[in-house]
Design goal:
heterodimer, A: about 130 residues, mainly alpha, about 0% strand, flat, B: about 140 residues, alpha+beta, 5-stranded mixed beta sheet
Chain lengths: ~130, ~140
């Protein structure tokens, strides 16, 4: 019984979502409602942040900034380990060839860089 | 091509970039997006994250991220995250992206209003996806 009810509900929601996608008016109304809700939540977050700062406490934005810095550090460590691995692999070859000492550091990831953003994490992987 | 692999993503981006209506669909949208397919072992042993940026009406740059935490540093305008099974259902059109986003099954961080307004351009992605032979790791293993 409950299963049937859930199924009916899911079908109705699916029909509503299709109606939103198909009709300009329904779509605009849904977009406006979503926008209103998101702006309301943002405003609430801002007030909450101000209150927390007034109380001398860290707010979500502060944690986000710390998380961003941690992610940057994590990426830098990854790039440095890759460079070290590359130099470690080259060192015996250089000794054989009589070229002691580190060579030019390789670009992390080993793939040629395409367009790169200023704040690009600079890792290997596809760049098109 | 297996979803979610780099080869699959490259093929989808190529197909999307060929679509004549892509510039209309992207007009006015914030520049970049990251998508995360959550791990679902053994089919998807680790989360798969990708990032892309559009410019001049096409996807100008994209890559798979080595670590999903890179998203925290990139701070893209949109972050879309969902379980592998949901992505699979979306790709097979067994689930509706708008419904998934509005119900919270597909987590969308960013200006959802702008995305809902562009729901009528879903065909751009659907037509591009139809041109890519997609295989799924949970089926490929059978």
């Amino acid at each position: 019984m409950l299963e049937r009810l859930l199924e009916t509900g899911a079908e109705a929601a699916s029909r509503a979502a299709r109606a939103v996608a198909d009709s300009d008016r329904a779509r605009d109304a849904a977009a406006a409602a979503v926008g209103l809700a998101q702006r309301g939540k943002k405003r609430l977050d801002e007030v909450q942040e101000r209150v927390l700062h007034l109380l001398g406490l860290a707010a979500r934005e502060d944690y986000a900034e710390v998380a961003k810095r941690m992610a940057r550090l994590k990426r830098k460590v990854r790039e440095l380990s890759r460079q070290l691995e590359g130099e470690g692999a080259r060192a015996p070859q250089a000794a054989v060839a009589g070229e002691a000492g580190p060579g030019e550091p390789e670009a992390a990831g080993g793939e040629p860089a395409g367009e790169v953003r200023e704040d690009d994490p600079g890792e290997g992987g596809a760049r098109r | 091509m297996i979803f979610p692999s780099e080869a699959w993503l490259a093929a989808v981006v190529e197909a999307v970039n060929r679509h004549p209506d892509l510039s209309l669909a992207l007009a006015g949208l914030p520049a970049d997006l990251a998508a995360v397919v959550e791990a679902d072992p053994p089919a998807v042993p680790a989360p798969v994250a990708a990032w892309g940026r559009h410019a001049s009406g096409r996807i100008a740059e994209w890559r798979l991220l080595e670590d999903q935490d890179d998203i925290l540093e990139l701070t893209p305008a949109y972050v879309v995250r969902g379980p592998y099974r949901l992505w699979k259902d979306l790709l097979l059109r067994r689930a509706d992206p708008l419904q998934a986003a509005l119900s919270g099954k597909l987590q969308v961080r960013g200006d959802l209003e702008a995305l809902v307004k562009r729901a009528n351009y879903r065909y751009v992605l659907d037509e591009a996806l139809a041109k890519v032979a997609t295989r799924f790791p949970d089926e490929a293993r059978r």
